[in-house]
Amino acid sequence: xxxxxxxxxxxxxxxxxxxxxxxxxxxxxxxxxxxxxxxxxxxxxxxxxxxxxxxxxxxxxxxxxxxxxxxxxxxxxxxxxxxxxxxxxxxxxxxxxxxxxxxxxxxxxxxxxxxxxxxxxxxxxxxxxxxxxxxxxxxxxxxxxxxxxxxxxxxxxxxxxxxxxxxxxxxxxxxxxxxxxxxxxxxxxxxxxxxxxxxxxxxxxxxxxxxxxxxxxxxxxxxxxxxxxxxxxxxxxxxxxxxxxxxxxxxxxxxxxxxxxxxxxxxxxxxxxxxxxxxxxxxxxxxxxxxxxxxxxxxxxxxxxxxxxxxxxxxxxxxxxxxxxxxxxxxxxxxxxxxxxxxxxxxxxxxxxxxxxxxxxxxxxxxxxxxxxxxxxxxxxxxxxxxxxxxxxxxxxxxxxxxxxxxxxxxxxxxxxxxxxxxxxxxxxxxxxxxxxxxxxxxxxxxxxxxxxxxxxxxxxxxxxxxxxxxxxxxxxxxxxxxxxxxxxxxxxxxxxxxxxxxxxxxxxxxxxxxxxxxxxxxxxxxxxxxxxxxxxxxxxxxxxxxxxxxxxxxxxxxxxxxxxxxxxxxxxxxxxxxxxxxxxxxxxxxxxxxxxxxxxxxxxxxxxxxxxxxxxxxxxxxxxxxxxxxxxxxxxxxxxxxxxxxxxxxxxxxxxxxxxxxxxxxxxxxxxxxxxxxxxx
Length: 682
Prior knowledge:
By secondary structure, the chain is α/β, with parallel strands linked by helices. Helices cover 48% and strands 15% of the residues. The chain contains 31 helices and 17 strands.
């Protein structure tokens, strides 16, 4: 104990924060003040611009303030001083000048696990009699909180108990550890401390009972508490490779899991652990560090910390292929497990090809500019990484898009008139508006949704929990519904604005925009439909008068450039137009329909909408198509087409729409309602 020091650790930090005077500071504070690069977690900041040494100093200050409040309750002067030293050094490895950090690394200080690095920095600085105690407290500080989050093993604190017992009786040692953990955790958030303080005490008790046993599934649950999946759902996902990952993690601690994983699904997280288990064979690796991946998945946008959705979507696709035992395309993205041998640490991340990395960065920068450049960049990203299958990929506009989808509820109410039976399946439920509508407008029905997109399933599961809905959603293939539901098991199957997405995105026999995809989808539905059951299709439609032409006069400057770019990017079919004047074109009626209903959505949805062909049949073609597939085994109960409410209003300010003769013309019908009933077994 150094009882001669009159200026406390708290005084030093407080003086610095008030005066910003960096002379005559103790070494531990100099490390933070003079840091030339910020090394800290992204978890508790709203913008990457907030990364600063000042935040680290503020955190240390808060820990010392909390300690000061505990000074007269239990702590002796010696105990108070010991904990003050520990708290002062606990963040030291996050600071230091570039030269200091280089020197520390050369000496073997593990700066990647900052508690270990800080302990070695303390050891170099300090010559006191209780050096082993303080070294151990710094080295193990925060591990109890990390254990409660599932990141570390309880056995990582074995050395802590042995050292504490050489200085204090068990009762005193436990109380000291509890106070230390309160300072560390409450400085992050007092609410967090209130939530975990009982768990901290029980964990300390377990430590002093020398009980280092671990429940693997419980550890995974704690690691992924923020994920939407239930424990039973997690067990199903883990079932195939649980033993491999259990053995792999039994001697490893994890760093930065939550801030790197919170935008991904549990399936993605599990896939990363499985990939790591495949890649890392050395028995000496003790640390799995997710910091690089955490940085890859974040960037600043409009002054806020954002998930890097471009990189995220690419990673999700890669992990989806791995989880489903599909061949991995490593042309532009690979999983990386980079070993840092001196410290038995492996950094987990993804590596992108030069062109892939450049395109991701271009998308980020183009997003800040907006407009067509951003749209073109995201179209290129879809192409390079093969993201076109994810029909729900709207990047930062995804929330707005789902809101827009949900606002169309009135137009979807017409579906209710044709519902039959008690088991209703919504294929491709999107934002969940139809699921909600079915639940609110019917009673005693089993309402189900099925979708191939992980993003949609996660969003709907969160919506179900937050809003206490009774409907259920599962992940499955719309072209093979029998894999998810038994034959003759569903009364009504609904395709609301989804057939055109299957047609546009799913390659059938190697080809997208293939009518055979529609045939496969309807045959799949027919197989699980009960006799007497119904398929209800609400989707895009083309005009029977294919030879008709329409004139579009643009009222705004962006209209013609939008059309020119759209005609280049659209892959469903060739879009034709003839210039009539500087702001006027003539187009086939069905090309005008296809273009205008993309133009309605505006530039932010362009990258998605340009990949879809909304109209794929005329009414006459649709009727013939159904009859050709099902013949007399199915009856078309209803086939009508109409202009969906809202298009006229949205386009009035943007265009004039005219016949070939220049007369005002109504917009072409956008939507059809088709009801097909499966024949009863005779």
